[in-house]
């Protein structure tokens, strides 16, 4: 029902791009057909109960009965079949349309991706994103670019993106209402679909009433670029749409739609990852960490020490650049400080005015998440990792001891610095 609200971030009525439009058209066709049935059946019913209702001192005879009239019965069966066909044919076409990634030369990586290290054989393929559902977060892998992120996918405006959908544990469902919905992630198999935020140049020209689809000019290109910037360049809300356990309702995700240059810059950022807080090489930092941790001072170094040590964060989280933060059980934290939300979209720090990060809110969100992760997201694995979760941390005396306020404070500052 949330998707039926007209002007929300997750409205299915405000469509961006061909997949969402196709699904919207199908929905409207079904609405009109079923509305017709409702009026015909409901109208006949209302007519009968009003006209033939029993009145005081009613001595009219029983009206003639239509039961067993072959013409009416066969006619109704025929009409029902016809209506089902009218809905079924476009439905099947819509399913195939969503499943089969189109061969759109304008979307081939080679024609728009200006970054480095794209293998030759990838240049005639669209961008591929592997979406993996976990209880209760999302991994987004970009195999052609060698990067992985979590909970906030980044995609180029107006380009076909091929999705491969898998699950790590139970069934989840990928739903990004304004751009496309909704395909399940099923353990043991790979589903696929494609998404596209906004029209490509050719489709956009068609809608603008440009008669010749091959027409091209700097003015048209500029208008099209403007359309992508104004209409599409945005931040979209998604949600797991299949009940998957305790925190299903808190398994959200985001899609940031960017232009080609921003996309290439984002890829470089993700690949480069992070250095140490004070600019030492990682070898030097770990030399100090292993032999004389007291020599590493300052809040960020302290935060990183908690991350590597007592907090055990690195056993489950990757931070690109850091040679010992290699765990893959939890979300990849590379550039987590640049994301607009944490905890799979549940804790937001994006300012609604200008789309920037509200730093105070971001700090509060990190603090809250680490301090009471079981409250923010009941059942989550960070809390109960069977020996590794922060509910079972031990202090230097071997006693169970949660992170102190000071440790959480410094860890939050460190995570905030990962951008
Ligand atoms: Cu994943 Cu609901």
Question: How would you characterize the overall build of this protein?
Answer:
The structure is a single chain. With 419 residues, the chain is α+β, with helices and mostly antiparallel strands. Helices cover 37% and strands 15% of the residues. It has helices spanning 18-51, 70-99, 109-112, 201-208, 218-232, 260-272, 282-291, 299-308, 359-371, 373-376, 405-416; strands at 127-134, 137-142, 147-150, 152-156, 161-167, 172-176, 180-185, 191-195, 235-240, 252-258, 341-342, 347-348. Strands 3-2-1-5-8 form a five-stranded mixed β-sheet. Strands 4-10-9-6-7 form a five-stranded mixed β-sheet. A hairpin with a 4-residue loop joins strand 11 (341-342) and strand 12. It binds dinuclear copper ion.
Number of strands: 12
What global shape is seen? globular
Q: What is the count of helical runs?
A: 11
Distance between the termini: 36 Å
The chain-level mean pLDDT equals 91
What value does the Rg take, in angstroms? 28 Å
| Small molecules bound | dinuclear copper ion
State the share of residues found in helices, binned by percent.
25-40%
Report strand order across the widest sheet: 3-2-1-5-8
Helix vs. strand class: alpha+beta
Strand content: 15-25%
| Major beta sheet summary | 5 strands, mixed
